[in-house]
C-alpha cells in the first residue's frame, strides 16, 4: 500500500501538476494540504475521473485538507482536532481507508515568533499530541501525515544557523514534535534514511530548489501497528521542478500487507 502526502499550495491552480503526479506515481492514498479553496470549489470531478474516491475540508483563501483513495472507500471520522470548538480552520481530516486510520494534517506555520500566531501553533500542536495519544490507546493501525511545519533536527534544514528564530525551527516547536514522537510513533522517512539529507520543501526565492536549499517539514508518523510494515519511502523531488509546481514535493511510503 502506497500512501503519499503533498502540500499542493492551491489545488485548483496546481491541478494539472497534481493530476500529472497522480498518473505518474499512482499512490493508493494521497493526503493533500493547503487547498486554498472553499468547499464548493474543490475539483471533485477531476479527482474522481483520475480514479480516486475523495473527501475534503475546504476553506476560502487558505488552509484546506483532502484525502484521495483508490484502495477502497474513504470513511470520514472527523474533520477537526478536538480541544477547541472555536477553531474553524480546516487543518485536520481523519478517515478510515482499507482498515487503516489516516490523519491528514496541516499544522500552523506560526510566524512571526514569538507572537499570537506562534502561540496558536503550539496550542494546535498540543491538541494534536493529545489526540495522537488517544489514537495510540485504541491500538489500531494509524498514520498521521501531512505538513507539520517543523524541522525536527539540524539535518532537516539547509543552513540551520539561519533558522534559529523561525517558528518552524524554534526549540519549542522541535520539542513539541519530539514529545509527540516519544508517545510511540515512528518517523517513517527518518527511520528509512537515518543520516541522509532529505528535503520536502524549497522556497520559490533565491533559486532554493536549484541550490537544494531545502527543509524537511512534511512527515509520516506511524503507530506501532503500522511501523513494522514499512518497506520503502521517499520524496518525489523532481515534481518540485515542474512548471507551476508547489513549493513542496510529494512524500510517500510503502507498507506491506
Automatic annotation (TrEMBL):
GO terms for biological process: DNA repair. The record marks 218 as: Important for catalytic activity. Belongs to the DNA repair enzymes AP/ExoA family. PROSITE patterns: AP_NUCLEASE_F1_4 (PS51435). Probably binds two magnesium or manganese ions per subunit. It comes from the Bacteria. SUPFAM superfamilies: DNase I-like. Mg(2+) binds at residues 7, 34, 147, 149, 247-248. The record marks 149 as: Transition state stabilizer. This is Exodeoxyribonuclease III. Its cofactor is Mg(2+); Mn(2+).
Amino acid at each position: 500500500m502506497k500512501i503519499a502526502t503533498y502540500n499542493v499550495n492551491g489545488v485548483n491552480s496546481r491541478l494539472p501538476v497534481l493530476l500529472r503526479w497522480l498518473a505518474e506515481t499512482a499512490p493508493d492514498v494521497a493526503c493533500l494540504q493547503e487547498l486554498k479553496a472553499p468547499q464548493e470549489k474543490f475539483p471533485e470531478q477531476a479527482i474522481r475521473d483520475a480514479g480516486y474516491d475523495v473527501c475534503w475540508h475546504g476553506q476560502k483563501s487558505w488552509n484546506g485538507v483532502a484525502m484521495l483513495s483508490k484502495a477502497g472507500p474513504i470513511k470520514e471520522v472527523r474533520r477537526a482536532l478536538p480541544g477547541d470548538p472555536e477553531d474553524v480552520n480546516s487543518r485536520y481530516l481523519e478517515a478510515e481507508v482499507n482498515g487503516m486510520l489516516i490523519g491528514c494534517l496541516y499544522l500552523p506555520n506560526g510566524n512571526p515568533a514569538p507572537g499570537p500566531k506562534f502561540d496558536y501553533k503550539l496550542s494546535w500542536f498540543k491538541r494534536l499530541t493529545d489526540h495522537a495519544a488517544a489514537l495510540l490507546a485504541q491500538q489500531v493501525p494509524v498514520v498521521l501525515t501531512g505538513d507539520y511545519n517543523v524541522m525536527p533536527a539540524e539535518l532537516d534544514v539547509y543552513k540551520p544557523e539561519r533558522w534559529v528564530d523561525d517558528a518552524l525551527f524554534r526549540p519549542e516547536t522541535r520539542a513539541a514534535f519530539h514529545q509527540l514522537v516519544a508517545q510511540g510513533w515512528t518517523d517513517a522517512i527518518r527511520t528509512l534514511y537515518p543520516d541522509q539529507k532529505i528535503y520536502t520543501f524549497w522556497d520559490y526565492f533565491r533559486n532554493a530548489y536549484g541550490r537544494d536549499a531545502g527543509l524537511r517539514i512534511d512527515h509520516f508518523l506511524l503507530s506501532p501497528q503500522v511501523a513494522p510494515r514499512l518497506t520503502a519511502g521517499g520524496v518525489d523531488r523532481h515534481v518540485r521542478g515542474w512548471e507551476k509546481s508547489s513549493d513542496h514535493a510529494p512524500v510517500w511510503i510503502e507498507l506491506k500487507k
